[in-house]
């Protein structure tokens, strides 16, 4: 088994801003695993919020033993970006070796397109209204908020896209008091879900708080071990493969979350179609799908995912799986 890691950079179509900062490109790691003349690949996006860098994640991957199985990988690396890229590369390798699709190997139904959210970058209310108007044809818009001046932005987006469904990602940017003050306005403006309104370490304040809009755990939910701390705080969990450490854990997290009564959202970091491809399998039937990473790019993989009025389509075998 030969494992290699390369860095790839994809230019964004425009500057992308959240409450933590701005970026003009997506920096990702691509993992290729070759065995007996067959190569599988996967992608991850190291995230500074979780103390990950391109260098640290590369070192984790390069520190793996010479031989290991996908099952052994789950204990060799912790949940996170490094395990994600390797896990997805192994799924791709197994599918190619078996001459089957990953969904068949996983015992899943054949995947279908899923409507995905489209994310509007954090900006001035005027520019966000313009973004909303330009994308008003999309059925689901996601707004990046998490600042002290969010209401004018939200009002502007609703004015720009009066008919679109809206979800909000506060990226841990609000206090309990700010969220309680905003909640009635979220209802008035037809917001359907708010992601991670409070910092992950301060979300105990959500217990007992009225939740007129569904509240989704993002930074507070990584893998199945996270679920025990979410009770009474959240209605939805956001599953991202870079948090779960790959497709293997993501599928298990989805099943356990649903069994415990949570709804499921499937999200992504800003990466290429290769990063989104495995997540399309997890997103089947999800309450919310947010796999718009490739739509934010000015360039993508050679066999990109297809996006149309039906949503994001599952990958062709030429891309992954």
Explain what you see:
With 321 residues, the protein is of the alpha/beta class. The chain has helices at 54-62, 70-76, 81-98, 102-105, 125-134, 150-160, 176-188, 241-244, 247-259, 273-276, 279-282, and strands at 2-18, 21-35, 38-44, 118-120, 140-144, 165-169, 191-195, 214-217, 236-239, 263-266, 288-289, 307-308, 311-312. The strands form 3 sheets. It has an 8-stranded parallel sheet. It has a 3-stranded antiparallel sheet with strand order 1-2-3. 46% of the residues are buried.
Count of helical stretches? 11
Task: List low-pLDDT spans.
Answer: none
**Alpha-beta classification:** alpha/beta
Series of secondary-structure elements, N-terminal to C-terminal: EEEHHHHEHEHEHEEEHHEHHEEE
Q: How many beta-strand segments? A: 13
End-to-end Cα distance: 19 Å
Q: What oligomeric state is this?
A: single chain
Radius of gyration: 19 Å
Helix percent band: 25-40%
Quote the beta fraction: 15-25%
Short description:
With 321 residues, this protein is α/β, with parallel strands linked by helices.
Features:
single chain; eight-stranded parallel beta sheet; 13 strands; three-stranded antiparallel beta sheet; alpha/beta; 321 residues
Write the layout of secondary structure elements.
Elements: E1 2-18, E2 21-35, E3 38-44, H1 54-62, H2 70-76, H3 81-98, H4 102-105, E4 118-120, H5 125-134, E5 140-144, H6 150-160, E6 165-169, H7 176-188, E7 191-195, E8 214-217, E9 236-239, H8 241-244, H9 247-259, E10 263-266, H10 273-276, H11 279-282, E11 288-289, E12 307-308, E13 311-312
Parallel strand pairs: 4-5, 5-6, 6-7, 7-8, 8-9, 9-10, 10-11
Antiparallel strand pairs: 1-2, 2-3, 12-13
């Amino acid at each position: 088994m030969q494992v290699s890691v390369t860095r790839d950079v994809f230019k964004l179509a425009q500057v992308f801003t959240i409450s933590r900062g701005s970026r003009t490109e997506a920096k990702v790691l691509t993992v290729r695993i070759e065995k007996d003349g067959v190569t599988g690949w996967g992608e991850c996006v190291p995230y500074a919020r979780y103390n990950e860098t391109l260098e640290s994640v590369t070192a984790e991957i390069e520190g793996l033993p010479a031989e290991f199985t996908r099952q052994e990988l789950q204990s060799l690396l912790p949940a996170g970006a490094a395990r994600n890229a390797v896990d997805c590369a192994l799924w791709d390798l197994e599918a190619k070796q078996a001459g089957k699709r990953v969904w068949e190997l996983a015992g899943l139904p054949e995947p279908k397109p899923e409507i995905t959210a489209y994310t509007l970058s954090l900006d001035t209310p005027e520019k966000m209204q313009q973004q909303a108007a330009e994308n008003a044809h999309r059925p689901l818009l996601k707004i990046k908020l998490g600042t002290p001046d969010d209401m004018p932005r939200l009002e502007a987006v609703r004015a720009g896209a009066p008919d679109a469904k809206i979800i909000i990602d506060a990226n841990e940017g609000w206090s309990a008091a700010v969220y309680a003050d905003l909640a009635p306005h979220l209802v008035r403006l037809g917001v359907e879900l708010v992601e991670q309104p409070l910092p992950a370490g301060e979300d105990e304040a959500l217990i007992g708080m009225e939740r007129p809009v569904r509240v989704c755990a993002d930074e507070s939910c990584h893998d199945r071990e996270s679920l025990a701390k979410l009770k009474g705080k959240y209605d939805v969990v956001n599953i991202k493969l870079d948090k779960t450490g790959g497709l293997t854990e993501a599928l298990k997290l989805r099943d356990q979350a649903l069994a415990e009564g949570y709804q499921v959202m499937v999200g992504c970091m800003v990466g290429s179609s290769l990063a989104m491809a495995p997540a399309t399998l997890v997103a089947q039937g999800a309450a919310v799908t947010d796999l718009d990473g490739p739509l934010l790019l000015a360039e993508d993989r050679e066999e990109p995912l297809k996006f149309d009025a039906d949503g994001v389509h599952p990958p062709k075998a030429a891309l992954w799986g």
